[in-house]
Amino acid sequence: MERLESIILRSLLYNEEYARKTLPFFKDEYFTQFTDRVVFQEIKKYFNKYSNPPTKEAVIIELGERNDLTDENFQSTTELLKEVEESYEKNDKENLSWLLERSEKFCQDKALYNAITESIGIFDETKESSFTKSAIPTILSDALSVSFDVHIGHDYLDNSMERFEFYRRKEEKIPFDLEYFNKITAGGLPRKTLNIALAGTGIGKSLFMCHMAANCLSESLNVLYITLEMAEERIAERIDANLMNVTLDALKELPKEVYTKKIDKLKNK
């Protein structure tokens, strides 16, 4: 059975579409066999310079000018290129989707293996490295993030129909209990969106957020309030005042029965 590395090298040489989609994601260290790695290096160097895949003959010429190859190394790499060419002539062209999927998994597996190996070496101090142990999480995180996904942004022409459907999609919104805010937001805040309340110092941003939190709680919605300024008890106090519909001063005089009844009502919603 043909090795995946051979299929990848063959596709990089003879399938320009595949090469353009995948070459930026392959790294030298993913190819563990010396001959595979050397051939890949020459393919990548040629492609980066001329923006198209090299011929087998061009790769052989470039290999012949390298100073780091012994006669045996050169012979091995030329034999590999010959095998790749013969395989291309004998076999049908692989399905591009399958090839991309397998190549992506190949890169992910190799990246993770190399990251784990490097991390163990750093941890055991058995391998010279410019990284310290504190870099291990980043090394592993970078390896786990390897992906061929390049879908970034919006193509104005290609995505025109998706945009047309979006215009007619009815969004699920969280309404305000303030009519004016519903008016200017066309019915409230769309779910799964980030919204920012901006205002000057002392204008009432925290007051507004506490009011919003109380309103959402009263509608049986989950609320996470993160504060980096006020104590959590003060935030909860303002939310309580909104829920009880009393002033902060009146909240302190509120009978326990009234307070617990309101809280229990919220719990049971």
From TrEMBL:
InterPro entries per record: DNA_helicase_DnaB-like_C, P-loop_NTPase
Signal peptide segment: none
An MF annotation (GO) of this entry: ATP binding
Pfam families: DnaB_C
Domain SF4 helicase: 178-253
Biological processes annotated in GO: DNA replication
SUPFAM superfamilies (UniProt xref): P-loop containing nucleoside triphosphate hydrolases
Protein name: AAA family ATPase
Phylogenetic classification of the source organism: Archaea, Nitrososphaerota, Marine Group I
